[in-house]
Amino acid sequence: MNTAGYMRRFGVTGRGLVVVLPYLWLLLFFVVPFVIVLKISFSDIDLAIPPYKPLLEWVGKNSLAIKLDFNNYAFLFTDRLYINAFLNSIKVAFISTVLCILIGYPMAYGIARAKPATRNLLLLLVILPFWTSLLLRVYAWIGLLKANGVINNVLIWLGVIQDPLTMLYTPFAMYIGIVYSYLPFFILPLYANLEKMDWQLLEAAEDLGCKPWQAFYKITLPLSRNGMLAGSMLVFIPAVGEFVIPALLGGPNALMIGRVLWDEFFSNRAWPVASAVAILLLILLVPFMMWYQSVQARESAGAR
Amino acid sequence: MTTSGGALVKAAPWNDPNARPYVQVDRITKSFGEFKAVDDVSLKIYKGEIFCLLGASGCGKTTLLRMLGGFETPSSGKIFIDGEDMTGVPPYERPVNMMFQSYALFPHMNVEQNVAFGLKQDGVAKSEIQDRVATMLGLVKLGDFAKRKPHQLSGGQRQRVALARSLVKRPKLLLLDEPLGALDKKLREHTQFELISLQDKLGVTFVVVTHDQEEAMTLASRIGVMNQGEIVQAGTPSEIYEFPSSKFVADFVGSVNMFEGKLIEDEPEYVRIGSDELGATIYVSHGISAPPEATVWAAVRPEKIFMSTAAPEGTDNVVRGAVQDIAYLGDLSIYLVKLPTGKVVRVTQPNTSRHAEAITWDQQVYLSWDATSPVVVTR
Fold this sequence. Notes:
The complex is a heterodimer.
Chain A: H1 3-9, H2 14-41, E1 56-59, E2 63-66, H3 71-78, H4 80-113, H5 116-127, H6 134-145, H7 150-158, H8 171-195, H9 200-207, H10 212-223, H11 225-240, H12 244-250, H13 257-267, H14 271-303
Antiparallel strand pairs in A: 1-2
Helix pairs in contact in A: 2-14, 3-14, 4-8, 4-11, 6-12, 8-11, 8-12, 9-10, 11-14, 13-14
Chain B: E1 23-32, E2 35-45, E3 50-54, H1 61-69, E4 76-81, E5 84-85, E6 96-99, H2 111-121, H3 126-139, H4 155-167, E7 173-177, H5 185-202, E8 205-210, H6 213-219, E9 222-227, E10 230-235, H7 237-242, H8 247-252, E11 257-266, E12 271-275, E13 280-284, E14 295-300, E15 306-308, E16 318-328, E17 332-338, E18 344-350, E19 364-368, E20 375-377
Parallel strand pairs in B: 3-8, 3-9, 6-7, 7-8
Antiparallel strand pairs in B: 1-2, 1-4, 4-5, 9-10, 11-12, 11-14, 12-13, 14-20, 15-19, 16-17, 16-19, 17-18
Helix pairs in contact in B: 2-3, 2-4, 3-4
């Protein structure tokens, strides 16, 4: 028997290896860190390095004690700060998603209906910002929005305003940052959906008595629903936990859960509480992720 | 003359100069840049007709149909439907419906919702919608499939949903773009006759676009043969077939043997054509209008040529040749006979007997035809 034969005998096949690799990846980079965070979230805080007490402890000679501290979770519900931060994050993510739909749908639609040659150019323009680091792009917005920044200077020079507008470190700046950064994630799945659309359906609808906007509402919109949902989830889920953009553009009042997490971790060195926040955030987002998965499954089933 | 095969338009209104056309296309041109897809076309279509636009792909037939539907705006010219100027009217305000080549069924709606769509859009009362949809689905024999989605149907069923959807609004004019193109041959033949009986029942005027001449011959009350954006001939199927007005039409509709020649005798009652290609003279028992010595073409259909082993009488319309190839099709056989001039003539013979005396390869045969058979065209 050759080597391949021996390997098969022990259940090692090419197909098996291909499947095992992504699972290994997930295990190393998702499951293990998650378990560590979960573990820390049940530990007691301690003035040590690392700043928490171990979960497992030998008491006496032959008994191992597990000490689970639920106080970290309980604490999150006693202090309004955390609940407010959660609610505010969801609100910000929701508004950002709505804004992305309003701005991104016409863009995706326009790209899908453009001539094939123009279409590729437009898609490239959507993807182009990814070639620069997110941090740099957000910093660039500071330059645009600040009191003596580009926008204010141009407006004053044009005589539209006398004194500079306060834009930086406001919710306005934060929404600009989030919508700007996540818009491509909304446009791309929606475009992929619209691109498969049979535009003759719109002619058929018009033939049967629909004005163009009615045809859009009754045909295009329902048929692009899955693409729109997928894009919305890709904006909503990461926006809930967004940290960099509110920290840089939103100013000190932008109370978001990502910010709270950072403060607990690095300022207060309260690793267990920070871990509990992270776990709770995850639990909060799981339903949305599952929804996204089911939408994706439906979408690919429909394509066949 | 035989009547047309398709729609039952009893009197032929196109022969009556006082008859009012139902659809009038008046000098329509559609240009895309330099290219003229439809070039100065005028047409009169009468109520209850099935009018077929027949042509190869790219001849402008679909563009003409889309202008009737309102999906393209003519560059110049006017379209009247039932006396009303439709030229600038958008599709959703035209009393016209279209059956698309791809059927364009709405994938997120079931059969019933697809058919009801247009009625709902017009604000028809719910109970009436139900009645009309049910009747229409019964008519196309899809009553049991009302709740199915389009992707759960076969090609033939989808075609019938599309037909029902476009007919349920009782349009004045129904446009059909290659209505049977996606069906296989057996189903197509069957559906052709269903379409005719449905049209007869509902009395809707049909304009059909097709590239399939057999389909056009079966369906149409009249056919408009299109080439390079122009209608080169319009007439009943038998007119188109038996009296083609040009080489193009004779060649495009059915198969034909074309012999080039010169007029050597041009009398009001007959003409005689000398054809080097044929190696014989052609005698035609009717006069034609052409300048003397003009180059003309005599078109003879393969089924109108007699083939025999014994020499027929006379010298006009008779040639000798050798059988080069035989194709046995069951109901008839096609013989390709090579003349001494090198020209190959196509002859079809019905297989009337199961044990016919067989003419075989390389056999010398005589070909002949009646003096009424050739059609002489000058262009």
